[in-house]
Hints:
CATH topology of the largest domain: Aconitase, domain 3
Largest sheet: 5 strands, parallel
Structural class: alpha/beta
Number of helices: 15
Amino acid sequence: MGKTFAEKVLAKKAGLKEVRPGQIVTVRPDHLLSHDNTAAIVEKITGDLAEFGVCSRELHVVVLDHVVPAASEKDAANHKAIREYVRKHGIRYFYDVGVGVCHQVMVEKGLALPGMVIVGSDSHTCMYGALGVFATGIDRTEASALILTCETWFKVPESIRIDLRGSLGPAVTAKDLILTIIGELGADGANYQSVEFHGRPGSLTIDDRLTVANMGIEMGAKAAVFEADKVAADYLKSIGVPPKSYEPVWADADAAYARRMEYDLSRVVPVVAKPHTVDNVVPVGEVEGTPIEQFLLGTCTNGRVSDFELAASILKGRRVADGARLLLLPASREVLRQAMASGAIDTLVEAGGMLLPPGCGPCLGAHMGVLAPGERCLSTSNRNFKGRMGCGKADIFLASPATVAASALHGAIHDPRKEIRR
């Protein structure tokens, strides 16, 4: 019997010939990611760090992104403590405020490569599965132990196979696909399982795959992964990563799965996740006309150049509705530069958009774009539970960049297919 991706990569990293679902294995991850929570993590091991130091200067990747620039004295002190930790222990991979959201930075800097095992003290670490990485979130206690030992443990997960065929239609995006899948599986439908995307996903770009993998955790998945095919290899080459620098791992054709599903991409339609759960998914037509005060375009889920260019193609030469706030949140400085060069940012700002610094602020309600009681936001982010954007009495709807842009024109949820320019 063949092996799944998770079984193969965890066996390799554990130094075992094979493993089976449910087995406990000890592995040495290639990287540990943390962000503004780094100070809280290292505070747990202050004494041990003073005595033993870090186990590796290359393991820990630190990115300041959640509250950037600092919104308060407390935030500034937190950032200062993190910078001191980085300097004291010679942490090689440190990215200060303004570089971007941690997950986008990991990908752009070539730190997430096919065949790797990467853990992060952030649930959306699973995004790197777009490049054939077994990537998953861990808690702060696990992260602190890793800094000292370079080792952690996993229970080998069962796997779900999702076969994709066909191509997405006009104004339908990968965000619509993953929300559709989550709507069917449920927020806990893949709990502690590795979700593999098979079939013919070649029509999905790396940006598409990053969006899909990013939201794997929203159906409870331990990991969400695509094969490191030519699309992935071409992307890695474009950022200076040669094929000889990584060893892809993929599932065997005869691997056993806990569940198999199939989606015809041509049948996917624009959808919206209604408050207050990500799996509360309906076709956009069911909520069309719902008034919206704030629109958020960006985040680590949909803050890439292609997302801004798609939105700009809809908003070019037009203005957002009176009273509507359109926030533009690039996933990284590099995305911002490229989107400026392409003219997408200028188009969106001219349409009434407000450009924010690359980071996470409004997505989690840390600062910038916090909602007021009774307000509604239509966002390209990945979560919509109560209080997610800073107010427990506000409503958050999730949708694609195309739906957000089209809706911003009307100040209400709107089907983006109606705004396609012939």
